[in-house]
């Protein structure tokens, strides 16, 4: 007896930037696509809230001018102009000795110090000149000689100060990583690809600009949680609380631990990687303020990193009204505080009131009088913040990268172990091409690990 025709051509689970990009590619190829999103809005970890004139980014996404070829290609396809993606002035500073030191991640920082002693600056030059970034970290992180070296072990080669005052705060602040768990290779590859923080940009109108633009032309069902995905002869079945949908193929654009739960029947090389691909939780509180706050220690830029030696609770303070003026009404302020990894683990299950109280009190060190200015507070919890890229995950990633095309594929920053939106966009396009090749030809395409998204276009 002939099997019934699938309900749709393609299903995408997750309406973050990865899922929406995959759906766009499938639809442009002529496929009927439906996106199922458990949350009540699109954007995933790149969602923005709009409250009383404030635009509150739930994360801290930046778009480097280099190293994001898939993202910039998508930006051009959607017709966004450069004026809609303005530069972030004075992007990153480092807190040390009671003040903010600018120019972190810029060549100028080697001259001004950027909070580092002359000895630590020489160690940084040695790291850069020694070829670790260009020789050992280029390409797929799982193929790097540094894949089985933790960031802690690698950074220690260049001295305690550079380790504790720069590399650790960078990894913790932007990836939520514990240096003792995560591999050095993905961080170094990301630094190689993106270059100077002086070229960082943001989205005018909120970090969900791309997601909203994509979703406007796609069939998205929000508040629609998928409970299980199973491969069938000739297709895929998606199970919901109250029914099922069948499709010729599906792309799971959700964090790896969620994908593992949804697709328990995944083949072994997929299941092994999904099991090893752990995520670091992240916690962030944003404060809408009645006016622009005072700052301590010459804090004039957007993001200030704080090392564990200076603060065991706060890892990053961002002045979001300086990222772009549209984030707060004229004359008002908007700031966010990101917790240090150790504090995240202990606080993420606390109430919103406790989290905002503790973070606002501690943030007074950097923003005197902050608590008196708070009009509203928003807590952003990400149990699956960013992929940790541990040595064990990188080992399992080798077989995962070489898997044949199947009815169920994956999209997300974790697929390439590149914890940023570029990893999600690049993996989404590859996932779409894999399932299209399979459904077009009736068989998997030849195995081709291909060029990784770390490599500049």
TrEMBL record:
What PANTHER family does the annotation carry? PROTOPORPHYRINOGEN OXIDASE
| Identification of the protein by name | Dehydrosqualene desaturase
- The source's superkingdom equals Bacteria
Quote the record's binding site residues for FAD. 37-38, 226
Name the InterPro entries for this protein: Amino_oxidase (IPR002937), FAD/NAD-bd_sf (IPR036188), Flavin_amine_oxidase (IPR001613), Zeta_carotene_desat/Oxidored (IPR050464)
Keyword terms: Oxidoreductase
Identify the cofactor(s): FAD
What gene is this protein translated from?
crtN
Q: Does the keyword Cell wall biogenesis/degradation apply?
A: no
Query: Per its UniProt record, what Pfam families does this chain match?
Result: Amino_oxidase
Tell me which positions the record assigns to the signal sequence: none
EC numbers, comma separated:
1.3.8.2
Query: Where, in this chain's numbering, is substrate bound?
Result: 190
Q: Where is the Amine oxidase domain?
A: 17-436
Q: Where is this region: Disordered?
A: 438-457
A single MF term (Gene Ontology): 4,4'-diapophytoene desaturase (4,4'-diaponeurosporene-forming)
């Amino acid at each position: 007896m002939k099997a019934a025709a699938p309900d749709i051509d393609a299903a995408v689970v997750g309406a973050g930037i990865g899922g929406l990009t995959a759906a766009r590619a499938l639809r442009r190829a002529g496929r009927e696509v439906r996106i199922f999103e458990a949350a009540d809005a699109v954007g995933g970890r790149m969602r923005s809230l709009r409250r009383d004139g404030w635009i509150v980014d739930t994360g801290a996404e930046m778009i480097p001018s280099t190293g994001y070829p898939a993202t910039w290609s998508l930006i051009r396809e959607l017709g966004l102009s450069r004026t809609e993606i303005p530069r972030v002035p004075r992007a990153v500073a480092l807190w040390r000795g009671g003040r903010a030191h600018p120019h972190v991640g810029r060549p100028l920082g080697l001259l001004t110090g950027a909070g580092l002693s002359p000895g630590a600056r020489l160690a940084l030059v040695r790291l850069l000149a020694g070829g670790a970034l260009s020789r050992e970290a280029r390409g797929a992180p799982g193929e790097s000689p540094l894949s089985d070296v933790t960031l802690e072990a690698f950074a220690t080669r260049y001295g305690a100060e550079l380790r504790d005052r720069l590399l650790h705060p960078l990894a913790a602040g932007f990836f939520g990583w514990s240096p003792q768990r995560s591999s050095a290779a993905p961080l170094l590859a990301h630094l190689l690809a993106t270059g100077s923080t002086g070229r960082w940009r943001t989205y005018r109108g909120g970090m969900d600009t791309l997601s909203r633009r994509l979703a406007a032309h796609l069939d998205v069902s929000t508040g629609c949680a998928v409970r299980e995905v199973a491969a069938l002869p000739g297709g895929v079945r998606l199970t919901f609380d109250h029914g099922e949908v069948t499709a010729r193929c599906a792309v799971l654009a959700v964090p790896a631990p969620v994908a593992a739960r949804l697709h328990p029947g995944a083949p072994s090389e997929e299941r092994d990687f999904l099991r090893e691909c752990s995520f670091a939780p992240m916690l962030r509180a944003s404060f809408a303020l009645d006016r622009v706050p005072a700052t301590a220690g010459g804090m004039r830029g957007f993001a200030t990193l704080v090392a564990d030696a200076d603060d065991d609770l706060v890892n990053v303070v961002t002045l979001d009204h300086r990222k772009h003026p549209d984030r707060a009404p004229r004359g008002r302020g908007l700031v966010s505080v990101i917790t240090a990894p150790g504090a995240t683990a202990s606080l993420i299950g606390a109430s919103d009131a406790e989290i905002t109280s503790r973070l606002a009190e501690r943030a007074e060190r950097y923003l005197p009088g902050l608590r008196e200015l708070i009009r509203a507070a928003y807590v952003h919890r990400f149990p699956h913040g960013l992929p940790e890229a541990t040595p064990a995950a990188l080992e399992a990633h080798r077989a995962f990268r070489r898997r044949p095309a199947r009815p169920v594929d994956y999209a997300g920053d974790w697929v390439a172990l590149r914890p940023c939106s570029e990893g999600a966009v690049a993996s989404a396009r590859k996932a779409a091409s894999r399932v299209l090749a399979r459904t077009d030809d009736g068989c998997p395409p030849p195995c081709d690990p291909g060029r990784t998204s770390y490599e500049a276009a």
